[in-house]
Amino acid sequence: MASNALRSSAALGGGVLERYADWLPLSESTPCITLGEGSTPLVRAQSLERATGADEVWLKLELCNPTGSFKDRGMVVAVAKAVEQGASAVLCASTGNTSASAAAYAARCGLRAFVLVPEGRIAQGKLAQATAHGARVLAVDGNFDDALTLAQELTERLPLALVNSVNPYRIEGQKTAAMEVVDSLGDAPDLHCIPVGNAGNITAYWKGYCEYFHAEIASRRPKMLGVQASGAAPLVLGHPVEHPETIATAIRIGAPASWKGAEAARVESGGEIIAVTDEQILAAYRLLADTEGVFCEPASAASVAGLLARHGGGSLVGQRVVCTITGHGLKDPERAVESISADLIEIDSNYDDAAAAIVEGLG
Ligand code: F0G
């Protein structure tokens, strides 16, 4: 492996493997690959502080990762371990972001990537990423849960490394986001809000917070508030959902693989897993773009929708809150164009028309 070339972009502070090496299951022969993942911004959200009464609300902008989602943190570990173990190809099932990330890291390491996606239900930007990186994309006539079952069957029989979050290396990498929150804030927050689909990420955050707590780097652990879409809320209902439905396609999942991990995070943290409607998700999506300058994909806005649904009345006085913003808005251009096209003002190409429209806008 041309490890020097692969690690070149780590020069500015290092990727997840370098920064969190002590917390990851790496060996001497794990290649230290990176695309510059991790070290994502943590920014204050004053509109949410006003709405919830919290002293501080922080957004962990995981959309700033190299492929535009949090998946890169776990994928860099999973792909590095696949390379270490001599794999020549990786496979995953995905609602889009995992496939984009797997395809990018596989391309960087010279591995073939195969992805199974639910036909017609994946955002165009994510599909574009997977194909741009040369992945072979198989559109499955079924939902994500069917695709994941198929992926597990395929990797049992074919020489492919499975890089879904059932692969424990994915969880190991993703837990570094919680560690970064503590590293940035100096301690764990009181409450952490996070969207829940296949439930790998809530499992990973809880693991990260627990490891820092046990190592006495954090003095406490947050309550975890997991948020599902109401049409795809198996963890809230307590049973799998056969036909999950939501506009937040990234979390359109009826039988989460990390069900037990999510349950443990909820119970051990004294937290909750709640459901929000698509309308609440879209309201949070617009609020983040309008008032915070953060353009995320709908599934990511679920964390904020959940925070507002539970604490919109101002019950969080004295508390410090973090919401994970999991993926970038440009991944789902159709959703974005749908919500902004109504506001397009068509004008003739002349000063008077343009100025009139602007003066009207200035109100
Ligand atoms: N937010 C985004 C943008 C996602 O892409 C996902 C999951 C989640 C939240 C939920 O995270 O599954 O760990 O509970 N996306 C997976 C995928 C399923 O295939 O890209 P989770």
Task: Summarize this structure as a short list of keywords or feature phrases.
363 residues, alpha/beta, 6-stranded mixed β-sheet, 4-stranded parallel β-sheet, 16 helices, binds ligand F0G
Q: Which runs of at least 5 residues are low in confidence (pLDDT < 50)? A: 1-12
Question: Can you list the ligands bound to this structure?
Answer: ligand F0G
What integer value in Å does the Rg equal?
20 Å
Q: What's the story with the biggest beta sheet?
A: 6 strands, mixed
Beta-strand proportion: 5-15%
Biggest β-sheet: strands ordered side by side in the sheet: 1-2-10-7-8-9
Please tell me the overall pLDDT.
94
> What is the overall silhouette?
globular
N-end to C-end Cα span: 60 Å
Assembly type: single chain
**Helical content band:** 40-55%
Number of strands: 10
Order of helices and strands: HHEHEHEHEHEHEHHEHEHHEHHEHH
Query: What is the number of helical segments per DSSP (H or I, 4+ residues)?
Result: 16
Alpha-beta classification: alpha/beta
List the helices and strands and how they pair.
Blueprint: H1 3-6, H2 16-19, E1 42-44, H3 46-52, E2 56-61, H4 71-84, E3 89-93, H5 97-109, E4 112-118, H6 124-132, E5 136-140, H7 144-157, E6 161-162, H8 168-174, H9 176-185, E7 191-195, H10 200-214, E8 223-229, H11 234-237, H12 259-269, E9 272-276, H13 278-292, H14 298-311, E10 320-325, H15 333-341, H16 351-362
Parallel strand pairs: 2-10, 3-4, 3-6, 4-5, 7-8, 7-10, 8-9
Antiparallel strand pairs: 1-2
Helix pairs in contact: 4-5, 4-8, 5-6, 8-10, 9-10, 10-12, 13-14
The structure holds ligand F0G.
Residues 69, 71, 94-98, 165, 195-201, 250-251, 297, 299-300, 326-327 line the site of ligand F0G.
